Amino acid sequence: MNIRRALATAVAAAVTAPVVILSAGPALADAQPPAQTQKKPTVAELEKAAAAAKKVYEDAVAAEEVARKAVDAATSDTAPLHVKAKAAGKEAGAATAAKAVADKAVSDAQLILDKLPADATAEDRATAEKTLADAKKDAEKAAGVEATAVEKARAALKEAQDAEVAAFRELDRATKAVKAALAAKEAADKALADAKKEAENPVCEPDTRLTSVLTGLPERLTAGTTTDFSLRITNGTQKSLDKLRPFTYVWAADKNHHKVSGDLLRLKWSTATSGGWKDVDSLHRAGTVENLAAGAHADLRLRLTLDARTPAGQGYAFAAAIVGDASCDGSQPPMEKYPFEILAAGTKPATGKSTADTKPLGGTSTTPLNTSTTGQLAATGASSTTPKLALAGGAAVLTGAGAILGARRRRTGG
To answer: Taking the model in full, what pTM does it have?
Structure first.
């Protein structure tokens, strides 16, 4: 039986392809043109694959049991080949005993001939010589019979042993096939369970092609001063986005790594249509970008005021764009993090770089697309579907942990 080939074919056809598609991930999808993106298997397809994998596994278990019984049969004393080997061995033993008798007859005849007296008659001598000659012929014949019987017994024993080895090898193949089929079954079952779970509560994957870039933020700011800078959101995806919520946040710690009160860091935003400067809301959102076409970008101005009581230390500005449209109301790209040094009030900062010259920490490339602004910024109220944003605080930010933006949000989320 060729168990391994049959199982490999069935598993590959029924299970592997759907599981591979599921495990390919967003990176694979992003690397392909839209027309070549692999279609995600449906729950029905995964149910069919899981059923097929189960059947393959059950067949493998049955085949292993057959192989195990074959081993028991091959190693049994009552196995035909063992019975045959035993009979051949017995026959070889009898031939060896007969040869020993024949050899002894030769020795005895030779002894009688050697002990004939010198005055023995010619007839007595001739009789002794004939007896010796006949004994030698019988011994030669017995030797031939023994050689044939021994070779026959050797061949029969090897045949029985080879049958045992073959049975054990088949059992080993069957056991490995069961292991492979079980792994494929478990993978298919997991893929199905994950698909059912996702179908019950869909998720939105982050799209790194939606970028948020801060420009004009100096690398050193003095307490008691106000600084203006900009945020550009670029839609690098291949679809228009109905609604985006620009996320902006400033966090700081003093030189002892103690968090600075948010009341000392006041952030406002403004656009040509906002009617002046607006405070970012309680969820750190700066208005709304509506109808941002594929490849386009939207800009807004930001103003950061550091209270004169702000202690010297380290600050970070964060930026991201939160998607909130009909197809996915909670998808976020990676959050970008921009560091700046806070100087004590009255300190004149030395000339330094701004975010126009550097890339953010821990983010993807921030080079904006060379396109025109087609998105519209609107000052709207808070949306109940805007995802929650978790930020790491204290020393964790200073050591690079930064802000953590929820990468997966439920379509039903709030």
So the answer is: 0.43
